[in-house]
Amino acid sequence: MIHDKTTTPPQVEPSTKLRRMTRIDTVSGEIDQIASGISANAPGKVVLAEGDSWLDKFTPIPVDGTNLLDAIRTPFEASVVDIAQVGDTSRDIVSGWQLKRTRKILNFFDFDAIILSVGANDLKNLYAGKIEAMVEGGLTATEIETLLQPATYSQDFASVVANVQTFISLRDASPSAITRSAPILLNGYDYFQPRPAKAEVFAGSNFGPGPWVYPALHAAGLSATKMKAAADAVINELNRSLCAAFGASTNVHVIDTRGILTPAPANSTSAVGDWLDEIHPSKAGFDKLAALRWSGVLSSLLV
User: Fold this and answer.
1) What is the 3-state secondary structure (H, E, C) of 64-105?
2) Quick one: how many helices (H) and strands (E) in the chain?
3) What's the pLDDT at 204?
4) Other CB atoms within 10 A of residue 229 CB
5) What angle do CA 34, 24, 295 make, to 5 degrees?
6) Which of 43, 84, 137, 139 is the most buried (most CB within 10 A)?
7) 285: helix, strand or coil
8) Radius of gyration of the chain (CA)
9) Cβ contact 241:160 at 8 Å
């Protein structure tokens, strides 16, 4: 599947069997490693995945399937080149060595689709900065109410939109006509309940990062109900911003999964139902997101 200007890969007909994508995991983006992985799998379709822990979820060890890429099923023999990295913001993916790595990969290989998951870590940093600064001065009732309004965060997500546009430009500059035509699927995430539930590095342990959003909202004195409303406002504004910027494009698709997952109970501290921790779905949650939205959209775009 390395790009060859003189040949056109044959069209691959879908089968009736739904398959899990074969992951080629390479944060470093080594060309030889990717080429070997694609050659070994001989896939009919190749997908590129970039972004955050919703794609590159390596915890808790040794639990399998707590990420979106493992949950998606398509009717094709497909490989996914996964360059996502836990903790990445939208700025990270279009800066420094990651920018150079992605440009190199897009120059060497043909991709039939691209999955992009960014915004959640921008959200986390948003709370760490904006709300903590407000708390230091003492929040008024009016200021608390503004936290519950999506419009409060419109300027904060302008940078996310700009960074996504930069990433789209990388695709559009590829020498491969196949890659230039590859649809980009943008993750819109789902509503979650801010709660004191950290990630577990090892299943059953109490060792790991987080919670990410709950501390700032708790310090602001918000009730569990208002914490949920504030988090919903941010997810709503992210989806609105992405749709406003890219909704008219025929080759960029915002995957709106709001309301699919059942929020965890407020103040719960461990995995429950659709949620592994505060901001990451469980395997059951990712399976639900894939079955009800992601698998169908990606499969239809790969045909």
Assistant:
1) CCCCHHHHCEECCCEEEEECCCCCCCCCHHHCHHHHHHHHHH
2) 12, 8
3) 76
4) 15
5) 130
6) 84
7) helix
8) 20
9) yes
The model scores a pTM over 0.85: yes
Q: Do the strands 73-74 and 184-187 form a parallel or antiparallel pair, or are they unpaired?
A: unpaired
The structure tokens listed for 103 are 């440009």
CA pair distance 213, 194, nearest whole angstrom: 6
Q: How many residues are recorded in the chain? A: 303
Determine which of 41-45, 110-114, 134-138, 196-200 has the lowest per-residue pLDDT on average: 134-138
Q: Per-residue pLDDT averaged across 131-149, rounded?
A: 73
Cα 254 to Cα 83, 265, 274: the distances in Å are 20, 28, 22
The token duo for 113 is: 């689709």
Distance of CA 158 to the CA centre of its chain: 17
Q: How far is CA 161 from CA 4, 106, 227, 245, 271, in A?
A: 32, 21, 25, 7, 31
Lowest mean pLDDT among 75-89, 111-125, 197-211, 241-255: 197-211
What is the rounded distance in angstroms from the CA atom of residue 10 to the CA atom of residue 87?
A: 37
* Strand ranges in the chain using DSSP code E only, listed in sequence order: 19-20, 22-25, 45-51, 73-74, 78-82, 113-117, 184-187, 252-255
Give the type of residue at 51: G
In a 3-state reduction of DSSP, which class is residue 253? strand
Burial group, residue 176, by CB count within 10 angstroms (0-12, 13-18, 19+):
buried
Q: How many CA atoms lie within 13 A of 252 on its CB side?
A: 21
For 172, other C-beta atoms within 10 Å of its C-beta total 12
